[in-house]
Amino acid sequence: MRAVLEARSGLAPEQIDTLCAFGQALIEKNKVMNLTAITEPQAVAELHFLDCIALLRAEDFSGKCVIDIGCGAGFPGVPLKDCGAVDQTDASGFSGQAHDMAAGNSAAAGRGG
């Protein structure tokens, strides 16, 4: 996952770290909850993260809030926020919990949803 993002995303190392943590949380949670058919780390990077980042070529999200409503496992909202493209995102349910876990916010990750 990391190698794909380092080679093709243009993101800073800390942004890549955050996406990799989110990707790992997604893969782990997918073992008990069907969130995505894409479960190989390289494919997660290519088909989820790079696809989301591709939106940045079509739209300037600076200063905008993205509401991710039922798009599936937090895509595209969480990666857009993690790469700094949007100031706020509302990604409820699993995606919000996984993002909190990846960010190290264990108290928030324990919330229901």
Index terms:
single chain; 113 residues; mainly alpha; two-stranded parallel ribbon; 7% strand; globular; disordered C terminus
What does the model show?
With 113 residues, this protein is mainly alpha-helical. 51% of the residues lie in helices and 7% in strands. The protein is built from six helices and two strands. It has helices at residues 2-8, 13-30, 41-54, 77-82, 94-102, 106-109; strands spanning 65-68, 88-91. A two-stranded parallel sheet has the order 1-2. The longest helix has 18 residues, at 13-30.
Q: Layout of SSEs?
A:
Blueprint: H1 2-8, H2 13-30, H3 41-54, E1 65-68, H4 77-82, E2 88-91, H5 94-102, H6 106-109
Parallel strand pairs: 1-2
Give a short synopsis of this structure.
This protein is mainly alpha-helical. It is built from 6 helices and 2 strands, in the order H-H-H-E-H-E-H-H.
Spatial order of the strands forming the largest sheet? 1-2
Number of helices: 6
In the predicted model, the low-confidence regions spanning at least 5 consecutive residues are: 105-113
Name the shape in a single word: globular
Binned, the helix content reads 40-55%
Which percent range describes the beta-strand content?
A: 5-15%
Q: Please give the radius of gyration in angstroms.
A: 13 Å
Amino- and carboxy-terminal Cα gap: 27 Å
How many strands, which pairing sense, and closed or not: the largest β-sheet?
2 strands, parallel
Number of strands: 2
- Class by alpha and beta content: mainly alpha
Q: Overall pLDDT, averaged? A: 79
Order of helices and strands: HHHEHEHH
